[in-house]
Here is the input.
Amino acid sequence: TRLEFSSYGHCLAKMRLYPVAAMRFILMLSLGFCAVGTVGQVPPLAPPKVLLAAMPRSQGSSASDEESALNEVFRSAQDNPQLIIKNLEDFLVRFPNSARREIVLRTICTYAQQANAPEVAIYYGQMLLDLAPNDPQVLSSLIEAASQQSDQPSRELGIGFCNRLITIAEAQRDKAAATG
Here is the structure.
């Protein structure tokens, strides 16, 4: 069954009716918060060299161009989250088809949370959701960012993310029940 919610409170009330989905939802959220730290606190990211080493390599001379550009992103920003976000945005404009696009979007979202910029986290999180549509961590980050906004469209967007996350949790529950 598909659950629709009109408010966060209604979302929580309905989750009481579906304890398995609620438990998975809470588990996914807690795993997301464990990865990010406590709510509202984002630990510093790995040093740029570690981040760059974890990124897939693309073919040709653009791989070295991308790597140089990413080195410059972090070197010139001097650990300033706003500058890192701006530099990574410029990177995405310069390399729109980069093999590193997903990790760059994840990095922007993480730094946007750190910089308390929920609108930036939502904007790039939605782009990331296009690449990883069933990623519970992305959805939980988007829910958190939307909950920091006070306008009605952001609340509706957050409710949509909650619905999507619950749908994923229910599908996983159904899959687990079918396999035994």
